[in-house]
Amino acid sequence: MTVENLHGALVNVGLFWMLTTPHEYAHAWVASRLGDDTPRREGRMTLNPLAHADWLGTVILPAVTSLLGGGFLGWGKPVPANPAQLRGGWNGLAMVAVAGPASNVAFAVLLAAVGTLAAERAPAVAELAVKGVLLSLYLALFNLLPVPPLDGSKLLLAARVPVVAYEFLARHGFLVLIVAIAVTPLGRWLSRLTWAGTLWLLRLFG
Fold it and tell me: Which one from 4, 24, 42, 167 is the annotated catalytic residue?
């Protein structure tokens, strides 16, 4: 482990936490707009980063996987939503789930614009912004994987996958993610897609 690797991991964790906050807030906001007051009662209708941190998923695992260099694994504290209160039921839950990754795509676009504008006048800011684009797009793609506790798993419920099957997958979801990142090309595939999306955005603004 080098000082550079440690610095990079700390930057990744800081950026990840910054991007996780609006991600989780987007879930809470959409759920509230669809009639579910659960996120508000749970104190999640806020942009306070501490309200959305899952210390294992937001700090520890992102740091470890960044240092190992085999991908990036992390998540925020899940926002509770009650399908019985949501307009549209399971379809409403799918909208709540997609809101998080959509917020990350929006932030990636914003950061790409910042990085392009700052490239000549503030190279350090531009470098940090580009890292933010990479991480934001990666977060969007990663969270769309159909594995609990990730957002994409809610799409399985909207697709009417039997609840029993979903609960079985949920019990083993964490292990599935660890194994998939560690021993399959999934992490590399996500990284390649992220790089492709980042380059496209930078070219769009550059």
Answer: 24
